[in-house]
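User: Round two. Same drill as before: sequence, then structure, for each protein.

Assistant: Same drill it is. First protein:
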Amino acid sequence: MTIHRRQDEPDARNLLDTMAQGTIGQALDRPEGPLKVSGTATYAAEYRLDDMLEGVLVGATIVKGKVEAIDDAAVLKMPGIAAVISDRRMIARAAQGTAGEAPTHTIDTVEYWGQPVALVVADTLENARDAAKALVVRYRSEAAAVDPATVVPEGDADATQQGDLAKAMDEADAAVDVTYSTKGHASAAMEPHAAIADWDGTLLTVRASLQMLNYNISELADALSLRESQVRLLSPYVGGGFGSKLGISQDVVAASLAAMQLGRPVRVVMSRQQVFQTIMRRSETRQRLRLAATADGTISGIGHEAIVSNLPGETFAEPVTQSTAFLYAGKHRTMAVNLARVHRMTAGSARAPGEAVGMPTLEAALDELADKLAMDPVELRLRNLPRTHPVSGLPFGSRKLAECLEQGAEAFGWEKGPRKPRSRREGEWWIGSGVASAARVHNVGEAKARVTLRSDATAVVESDMTDIGTGTYAILRQIASEMLGIDPASVDVRLGDTRFPRGPGSGGSWGAASIGSAVSLACEGIREALAKRLGTRAEKLVLKDGYATLSGKEQALAEVIDGNAISVLGHFEPGDVEGAFVSSGYGAFFAEVAVNHWTGETRVRRMTGAFGFGRVLNAKTARSQCIGGMVWCIGTALTEALEFDPVDGHVVNCDLAEYHVPVHRDVPHMDVILVEERDPAASLIQAKGIGELGMCGGAGAIANAIYNACGARIRDFPMTPDRVLAAIPPG
């Protein structure tokens, strides 16, 4: 039985609110949590297969050119070497998210330093690694640009031009015209990219660290010229992805080709350095912000133009202006993202692409405008919230930005009124606070899930959906528990296997709303089947604590099932409602910092985040996602930066010793306020994405707090001590 629903209009039934179990929204533990913290959850590289070989990728040592020859004779004589593979089906770049097909770029054409050009396979990792280092590859090198500043960018064919921004700037009572920059970022997931491939002659089974199996199976089959029925992917546990594992990566294809050629299982695990050098980066940005306002703080014009970079042939451009387009009102608007072609590894989705670096700069520029207007920055934001999309005129599905700003300000203890820098000092530390809005566009994807209510009144949920640390196992258990009226512990959630129905994949913060809608649909079908057995309609049936109640009469679910399990496939599909409303999550950040007058060191002392993202499915996992995003805000603001060699474009700081993510001592106490709402246009379960919202703008709040503390207005992220110290006014 299949229940298929395309969402062409808002779903105002709010079915989860009409259920009786009381599970949904509760701060329940992750069911797989004990396995993860005890080290018994098996990740991609940790499987032990009989007769397994080890593979190590060999990276190019030139920026651009052709592989002319691979001299493998000497390497093949080294101990334990099974093969040197340079099959042209190996991929040179990771696939972009939702590609659904293999990248077309072949390994014999080098486009960036470190690009995989071969795989060495041996009996042990040590032997494979030593041989990979000894392998001689001869190239024909070509000149290539590696610095975006030296390249004329391509124009944006989708640029927004409305009204006359130049005129609005000239006529404004207060105007800001500033340029900000952000460094590139690495996803920096805890688990490196890894794959174990096993070929039995007809079926290829790959255990890999991947986010979107529904797309990845198509990409891998395409790369290998196999039918999808000949491929099985397994990713039950993924140690973080942050966009870097959306598409298949070089390790997956290389391990698969080696296994098919050698007839033995092959494991390929990228080193941390290889992950940094070859997997998706977030592009650096250079952003021009223009804001024009009348004396009362009404914004009349907004300009947001950015330059980002990517490899030749890639269509992805960091969508820096994505939320600027609708966040604030302003009749006159100019927005564009221009793309510079450089030979660095592929730029793609990394931790809230677009807003993660576009929102902090917009919010910092808005603080500059508030300073010129002598106006409270919170009040300035509240005065400029549009009623509809400023360009398209579409209505908002739901928008709790005002509530987030107001509730966040109250909880933080925000002092209303104009801000005055350098007003508070504790010894050698300047103390200040800052605010920023948050926004992250909301999307949903097609999703399928099978729910089976077994004869003993326990349930099984199955989908190839992944849990990358976000809490998918927990929320799907809660949705099924709520809809079927059974204890959460009675629900077994099985994920990460392409033999299961295809989910939406984990990415773009669309996972929970999409797969949750599919599970809800499947449970609707089960409720209808139960109601039919009882001779009534589903809406009259109350399911709670394993009992079905009808007209005051209780009957155990197991008796209603009577040995005949009920299995329903829920199939959710996005529909016309997506184009009829503006759908986004919103929030507000408040930060307090201390800045050392003598060293420029910045310490974040406390942060408050208030977030509105539709229905809260699990208060604990939602809060954890918000805290994680706020931690990334600290990284964006103060520490994180990919540094590239100016000659050959390789990543200089290619490990976690030199690429500085925030550590425990960098992170203060964080307060999270969940501003719950229902958005019937967002999904069938009235939920929106939360996975990335928490990092969309918070770095701007920290930048604004630094200025409020010590008077240093810094327009280059990250705001490292040397930059802060140079910008602190004398005295």
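Second protein:
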Amino acid sequence: MALVTKKDKSIKTTDTKQKTRKGVFWPAFLIVGGGAALGIVNNKLLTDISMNGFLGSLRGLGWLYQIISIVALIIVAVVTFSKLGNIRLGGEKAKAKYSFGTWFAMALTGGIATGVITYGVNEPIIYFNDIYGEMEKTGVEPGTSLAAIFALGRTFYNWSFIPYAMYSLSGLIVAYMYFNRKKSLSVTATLIPLFGDRITKGFWSNVIDTLSVLAIALGLASSLGAGLALVGSGIETTYGIQQGPLVWLALTFIITLVFTISSLKGLDKGIRFMADANAKVFYILLAILLIIGPFLYIARTATAGLGYWLQNFWQWGLDPIDMGGEALVMWWTLYDWAIWIAFAPLMGIFLAAISYGRTLRQFMIVNWIMPSVFSIIWFSVWGGTALNWQQNKVVDLASTITNSGAVAGLWAFLGNLPMGVIIIPIVMLTLILSFSTAADSMVRTISILCTSNINYDKEPSSWKKLVWGLSIGIIAFVMVASAGGAQGVDGVKYLAALGGTAVLFIFVLQVISAIKMFFIDKIEKGE
């Protein structure tokens, strides 16, 4: 390990002379802070605005979400397996800062937040039993063996190679432009291949980065809201404490406090430690269930699910709602794409910051292939076990979800495990840790984007992190408390769609920029 001098240490500390990008910080803060204030004063109005935005954006732009996601997948695959993958971020002599294991832990846990825990059990069961009408237009009979195969295949589709391609593509462009082209660490810099350096100055620079901040703030609020609903349902199901505003408020305070403190500690002291601990818990939970679960059923159903997914890949990938219906496509797949795209531009900045010294192929292996494989294994083991129990009437997870909301099945599932009394509180803590790991990395990135000319290894001002952390926590609480809806998490889905819509066209431009930069323009030697 290289020695770190005092001069090196100073690079990682907060620069007291940092200048705030007023054209980004204030518009974004006024909208997000205004939304938080509106939620406190008139939560119904905020809910109505969010709901109308959700329905309008996904119904009107579903076709574009689907097309651009497929294009992103193709681009990252070509970069990974072509000679472009040999390019090293930072130049040929650049050395990586983090070990491979730490790098993967930060990339994995910085992106999935509470998602795989929240839906690892719930989503396959919802499809299998057609709880909200997801199977009506699929031609698959709910509750059958084929329904179980469909359920796993669809979750593989929603949670693996396509969504991680979105993260990876944004991260790839940010990293290459910053480390190899020596441009600014910003979303606007990724569009230089299309518009030249003028895009990084003035009005359009502020607009693009403001929209990116808004998207990730709404996306984080959505993820936190889903986490609140999940932990709240777990407390109610396991301990009999009725979930409601007081429980959600207490959870909001705890989670927001944890991720804000971690973010204040910085990348190496806070985020790195949280990610490493979080990843280890994920591995342990996966191993436990793989050992005690119905291994043969998991292996067979997951393999068949992979086949079903690949067989239907193009139909699912190009369905704007018309073939699968709103219950399946809009409320699940397009919602997923919206939240992944909402996170993508700023998640890209985070992934870029921890990838110095790696080749583009290594970057794609860690940020695209390995997380996708992890998700497939996770849903195979957790979802497969849940489907097996549902089919064999070991525990009626479908009734739990029907009666208590879309995220409640997890707790009935865990309660049926050996040592469930011990595992349940561990999972609750893991949920808090999972969201906190993702949130502290994103709060840091938001604060970077609101700061002028900051290096990737410097910490932005603490007050910025604090302001964004509190604002996100307030909005999440309001949406869970006042906009649960049929699934119990409708309000947070509204936020996700709004966040995705805010940056959808920026992401489209990033995709076009990547095509121009890597396949049309000439890559100079040494870049």
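The chain is about 75% helix and 0% strand.

User: Perfect.
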